[in-house]
Amino acid sequence: MISSNTLVLLACLAVAVVLLLGLANMMRGGSANLSQKLMRLRVLLQFLAIVLIMGVVWWRSA
């Protein structure tokens, strides 16, 4: 079974990877459409990471 610490770490890493991919695409002058999609994905992943973190905090305090 995957620990809650590992899940939180994976969620944060996913956000960081998508953020870096989006920034790299913008800096090299890539497709604006791709950058927009990556930034939207980043926002979604951030939301999921926050929900996961709050769930872990709640679960550990119970």
From TrEMBL:
From the record, give the transmembrane residue ranges. Answer: 6-27, 39-59
| Residues annotated as signal peptide | none
Q: Which residues form the HIG1 domain?
A: 1-62
Keywords, sorted A to Z: Membrane, Transmembrane, Transmembrane helix
Q: Please state what the protein is called.
A: Hypoxia induced protein conserved region
User: In its keyword annotation, does this UniProt entry include S-adenosyl-L-methionine?
Assistant: no
The beginning of the lineage is: Bacteria, Pseudomonadati, Pseudomonadota, Alphaproteobacteria, Hyphomicrobiales
Q: Which domain of life is it from?
A: Bacteria
Has the keyword Phosphoprotein been applied to this entry? no
State the Pfam families in the record. HIG_1_N
